[in-house]
Design a protein that fits this description.
Belongs to the class-I pyridine nucleotide-disulfide oxidoreductase family. This is Dihydrolipoyl dehydrogenase. Its cofactor is FAD. The protein has 477 residues and is α/β, with parallel strands linked by helices. The chain folds into three domains: 2-145 and 270-334, FAD/NAD(P)-binding domain (3-Layer(bba) Sandwich); 149-268, FAD/NAD(P)-binding domain; 347-471, Enolase-like, domain 1 (2-Layer Sandwich), CATH 3.30.390. Helices cover 30% and strands 25% of the residues. The chain is built from twelve helices and 22 strands. β13 and β14 (255-260) form a beta hairpin. The termini are far apart.
Length: 477
């Protein structure tokens, strides 16, 4: 057993861990970057990037299928599953390669391999070969897919999102368990690529939407294309040869038994903490066994241990993980002079079609009586109709009295772009009037934002002026 000593030890070399490492190194500290699994980050290897590659292929197939609506006829659609997956894996490997190359530039003396566990608040043991002493620690071990108990006996026919990107060809059928972002994105993509897909949700919510009106609009939009089974309980899933027999029960008592080639568990993720042995740290833990921490400093209590990324189960998004890593690494290096770091306005996007987005405060976090709502439907919005993407609804929220923009939830065309505009406005604490003073080109989908903001302003001042809308030259802009 060898012993190494560093100023800071970072456990995990994913997005948060790499960010923490760089931040601590910027202070001139010696930093150990510890990783027990493959390099490459969850996002690049099995998350954001390969999923968007699969979605891009699905969008291409969907465009061919939709072309006759424009009077364009491309002939019979043929999807080559092997070619689809070959591109997904090839481009995925390219993205992973960029990350791995960056890691390889780190001093080999600071790149440690092994699974870490605490043996004291300032000491780690890596497997059975190395003890690491460090006065400051950053925990950035990420998360793993959660597997429901009912699915654990399905062997190779049970898959998580990681497994999808190892396929050499597209399967015949998949049952998706979970209606969160991962389940919806992969479920719709596979459906558009010719896979028979059913998506099961225990409740009636899609993609963590909390606005009831937006959620119902999302159900209407996506349910018109996908086989959505909401408010449905998975009774059992059993192997029968090379198929899985899935037995479900809906809230109205109806039961169905169906056969699928694979079952995709998309029921959330679990922090990777099982082997860290927090008991040795003396940290105060919550009911889920996670250390209590300050989301503005990432500090656990008043200790020299910090959390960052998906492991803290707070905001499981790449840009948030990177920010948390930067804050944690900076504060670990400057400990005990801990400072609050920049936490950006909330921004979440599901790359379904139509896309789903949440910005700033959502309906779940808003205080009743302190806000007003404005909205716009994309059904008759000019540019949306031009592109035959006129589905969805945007709802924006503003604070009574101050008229400050608070947040939004939406499903609609190009929501990823609209969400960024609204997030910038939210972070800059702009008022609705200030947002309406910004330029809006014509014809663009963003004109729908102006309509929603005008509706919000009218509701905030409790006055409706139809004259305001007379300058709009197409419906819904």
């Amino acid at each position: 057993m060898k012993t190494l000593e560093f100023d800071v030890a970072v456990i995990g070399a994913g997005s948060a861990g790499l960010s923490a490492y760089r931040a601590a190194k910027a202070h001139g500290k010696s930093v150990a970057l510890i990783e027990g699994g493959p390099y490459g980050t969850t996002c690049a290897r099995v998350g954001c990037m390969p999923s968007k590659l699969l979605i891009a292929a699905a969008e291409a197939a969907h465009a061919v299928a939709e072309a006759p609506g424009f009077g364009v006829h491309a002939g019979d659609l043929r999807i080559d599953g092997k070619a689809v997956m070959q591109r997904v894996k090839s481009e995925r490997d390219r993205f992973v390669g960029f990350v791995v190359k960056g890691v390889e530039h780190i001093d080999a003396a600071e790149r440690l391999r092994g699974h870490a566990r605490f043996i004291a608040a300032d000491r780690l043991q890596l497997d059975d070969h190395t003890e690491v002493m460090a006065r400051r620690m950053v925990i950035a071990t990420g998360s793993s897919p959660q597997i429901p108990q009912e699915l654990r006996d399905l062997g190779k026919h049970l898959i998580v999102n990681d497994d999808v990107f190892a396929w050499d060809d597209l399967p015949e059928s998949v049952a998706v368990i979970g209606t969160g972002i991962i389940g919806l994105e992969l479920g719709q993509a596979l459906h558009r690529l010719g896979v028979r897909v059913a998506i099961f949700g225990r409740g009636g919510r899609l993609a963590q939407l909390s606005d009831d009106v937006i959620n119902q609009t999302a159900i209407d939009c996506l349910g018109g294309e996908l086989d959505l089974r909401l408010n449905t309980t998975l009774v059992s899933a059993k192997l029968a040869g090379e198929q899985v027999v899935v037995h479900t029960r809906s809230d109205d008592g109806g039961e169905r038994t169906e056969h699928f080639q694979y079952v995709l568990a998309a029921t959330g993720r679990t922090p990777n903490i099982a082997t860290l042995e927090f008991a040795a740290t003396g940290l105060q833990l919550n009911e889920r066994g996670l250390p209590l921490f300050d989301p503005l400093t990432m500090q656990c209590g008043d200790s020299a241990i910090f959390m960052a990324g998906d492991v803290d189960n707070d905001r499981p998004l790449l840009h948030e993980a990177t920010d948390e890593g930067r804050i944690a690494g900076d504060n670990a290096a400057r400990f005990p002079r801990v400072v609050q770091g920049l936490r950006r306005a909330g921004l979440g996007i599901a790359f379904t079609d139509p896309q789903i987005a949440m910005v700033g405060q959502t309906r779940r976090t808003l205080k009743q009586g302190h806000f007003q709502t404005g909205e716009v439907s994309f059904t008759d919005q000019g540019r949306s109709r031009v592109m035959r993407q006129n589905r969805g609804l945007l709802r924006v929220y503003g604070e009574r009295g101050s008229h400050r923009f608070l947040g939004a939830e939406m499903i609609g065309p190009r929501a990823e772009h609209i969400a960024h505009l609204l997030a910038w406005a939210c972070q800059n604490q702009m008022t609705v009037d200030q947002m309406l003073d910004m330029p809006f080109y014509h014809p663009v989908i963003e004109e729908g934002v102006r309509t929603a903001l005008r509706n919000l302003k009218e509701n905030l001042v409790n006055h409706v002026s139809e004259i305001e809308h007379c300058t709009d030259c197409t419906p819904g802009v």
